[in-house]
Amino acid sequence: MTAPTILVGDDDGAIRTVVSQALGRAGFEVRATGNAATLWRWISDGEGDLVITDVVMPDENGLDLIPRIRDIRPELRIVVMSAHNTLLTAVKATERGAFEYLSKPFDINELVNVVRRGLESRRAPGDEFAAREPEDALPLIGRSPVMQEIYRTLARLMGTDLTVMINGESGTGKELVARALHNHSPRAQGPFIAINIAAIPGELLESELFGHEKGAFTGAQAQRKGRFEQANGGTLFLDEIGELPLTMQSKLLRVLQERAFERVGGGKTITVQVRLIAATNLDLDRAVAEGRFREDLYYRLKVVPIRVPPLRERKEDIPLLVDHFLKRLRQEHQKPTTIVPEALARLVDHHWPGNVRELENTLERLVIMGRQPQIQLQDVTAIVGERPPAGAAGLDAEASLTSSVQDLERQQIVKAMEDAKGVQAKAAKMLGITPRQLGYRLKKYGLAS
C-alpha cells in the first residue's frame, strides 16, 4: 500500500526540514516547498493527500490559497500553521475551509496526530457551512499556549449551535469568549443577549428570563418579554450561572429540553430557538456534590467546556494586553502615554487577582493620573506595590499564590463589612459585587453570623 503524500509549504527552511523529518518518521511521503506557486502546481496536478501550509509565504498568503484549493479539490484536507497567533488568524483559517490550525511553535507530535486525523476524515463535497467574513478585530488577545487552545476550540465550534459552559475567575474575559462564539456562529445576525444571574434578585429572575403578562404581580403594568424571547434566533449568555437558585434550575432545565416556556402569569406556551452559553467562576462540580446545583442541568449546560485562564497563568500575554489597552487609552484621553521597560516588567510580575479587568483599570488610572508621557516604575509600584518576595522554600508556588489571593479577598470583605457596620447590601456595593455573591463569600471564609 502506498504511503499518503503530505504537501508542505513554508518559506522557513528549518521548519520544512523539521516537519518533513517528523512526517517521514511517521511513515508518510513528504514534498516540501518554500513558495505558494509550487505548492499550487502540485495540488492542481492532483498530487498529495493532505496539505500543510504556512500563512505568510513570499508569493501568496496561505489563507488566500485555501479557497482556490477547495474549488478544484474539495476533499483535500488543509492544515494551516502560523506564527501570527491570534483568534482572527484561527477563525479566518477555519472559515475558509482549513481542517485544523496550528500556532508556531507547535508540538511536532501534535502535528503528526493532526495529519492522521485529517487523512482519516476526508471532506465530502458540500459538508462545510457558508463562510462569513470575520470582524476586522476581535477582543481576545494573547499568544500563550492556553490562549491558543481557546482559539482552536472557538474555531472548531464555528457553524455549530452547541451549548457551551465557560469557566473562569472574575475579570478573565468570559463574556468576550461568549461574544466570539456568537459572532462566528450561524446565529451571528441574530441578537446577543447577556444577563448576569447574580445581579438579579431571586424573586425577579423568572420574570427576567421568561417575561410576564400584564397584572401577573404587583407592578406588572404591561406585558414584558423575557431574555429568552429577546434572544430568539440568536444567543443567550447566562453569566454567573452558579448563582441560579435551585427552584429556577428546574425551570431552566425544562426550557433546555423542550425549547418552550410560559411567561409569568400566562398560559400560552412560547417556543424559541436560542443558542445558550453559560459562564461561572464557581466550582460547579463541587456545587453538584453539595446539592447546590442540579446534576442534570450541569451536564445539559456543559456540552462543550471552555476554561478561560487567569492572567497569572499567561503572563507572557501581559505585554500584548498592555500595548492594546495603551493604544485605546491614548486615543480616548488624547495623551501620548508610553511605558518604560522596568514598569512593564513590574506589571508582568504582579499576580493580578482581578485579572484582565484589573490590568485594564490599572492602566487607565496610570494614563489619566500620569503627569509625564512615560509610565515609570514608581508610578506602577504606587498602585500595585513593590515586587513580592520570593516564595517560602518548600511551598508550592501556585498554592501559595491562591492562598495569598484568598487572604487578600478575605481582608477586603472584613474591612467592607466593618465600614458598612455589618450591612451586607452596603458592603456588597463597596466591593462591587452583589449581596448574593457577598453572602457566598462570607460563608466561604467563615464570616457569616
Structure description:
There is one protein chain. The protein has 19 helices and 14 strands. About 6% of the residues have low confidence. The chain is globular, with a radius of gyration of 26 Å. It folds into four domains: 116 residues, 3-Layer(aba) Sandwich (Rossmann fold), CATH 3.40.50.2300; 149 residues, Rossmann fold; 72 residues, Helicase, Ruva Protein, domain 3 (Orthogonal Bundle), CATH 1.10.8; 48 residues, Arc Repressor Mutant, subunit A (Orthogonal Bundle), CATH 1.10.10. A five-stranded parallel sheet has the order 2-1-3-4-5, sandwiched between helices. A five-stranded parallel sheet has the order 7-8-11-6-12. Strands 9-10 form a two-stranded antiparallel ribbon. The protein has 449 residues and is α/β, with parallel strands linked by helices. Helix 2 runs parallel beside helix 3. The longest helix has 23 residues.
Query: Outline, from the CA principal axes?
Result: globular
Structural class of the helix and strand makeup? alpha/beta
Query: CATH homologous superfamily of the largest domain?
Result: P-loop containing nucleotide triphosphate hydrolases
**Would you identify the regions where 5 or more consecutive residues have pLDDT less than 50?**
123-138, 391-402
* Number of extended strands: 14
CATH class of the largest domain: Alpha Beta
Q: What is the chains' assembly state?
A: single chain
**Distance linking N and C termini:** 75 Å
Helix count from the secondary structure assignment: 19
Helix content: 40-55%
* Domain module count: 4
CATH topology of the largest domain: Rossmann fold
Proportion of strand residues: 5-15%
The radius of gyration is: 26 Å
Strand order of the largest sheet: 2-1-3-4-5
CATH architecture tag of the largest domain? 3-Layer(aba) Sandwich
Q: Return the average pLDDT rounded to an integer.
A: 84
Biggest sheet record: 5 strands, parallel
